[in-house]
């Protein structure tokens, strides 16, 4: 178990072993949320924009390979975010 202390500016330093295990680097985004048992959970946001567009490109192309419309891109982004939502049983 790792422990971090909150500073007067409400900041913490993530322990090195956690940063390395979850590939948390400067600029990484972390999601803070509460599970159904009322526990604070922290999960790294691992879906990158490039991955979302690559997924959309590979899965949403029409047979004539036309460019995607704004609506199709919005739908793809919404689907990717829905898939990335953490499960209450996940632990960090």
TrEMBL record:
<keyword id="KW-0238">DNA-binding</keyword>
<dbReference type="InterPro" id="IPR037914">
    <property type="entry name" value="SpoVT-AbrB_sf"/>
</dbReference>
<dbReference type="InterPro" id="IPR007159">
    <property type="entry name" value="SpoVT-AbrB_dom"/>
</dbReference>
<dbReference type="GO" id="GO:0003677">
    <property type="term" value="F:DNA binding"/>
</dbReference>
<feature type="domain" description="SpoVT-AbrB">
    <location>
        <begin position="4"/>
        <end position="50"/>
    </location>
</feature>
<protein>
    <submittedName>
        <fullName>AbrB/MazE/SpoVT family DNA-binding domain-containing protein</fullName>
    </submittedName>
</protein>
<dbReference type="Pfam" id="PF04014">
    <property type="entry name" value="MazE_antitoxin"/>
</dbReference>
């Amino acid at each position: 178990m790792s422990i971090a202390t909150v500073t007067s500016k409400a900041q913490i330093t993530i322990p090195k072993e956690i940063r390395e295990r979850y590939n948390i680097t400067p600029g990484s985004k972390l999601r803070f949320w509460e599970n159904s048992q009322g526990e604070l959970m922290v999960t790294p946001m691992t879906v990158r924009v490039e991955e979302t567009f690559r997924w959309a490109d590979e899965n949403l192309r029409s047979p004539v390979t036309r460019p995607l419309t704004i609506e199709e891109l919005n739908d793809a982004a919404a689907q990717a975010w829905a898939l990335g939502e953490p499960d209450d049983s996940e632990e960090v």
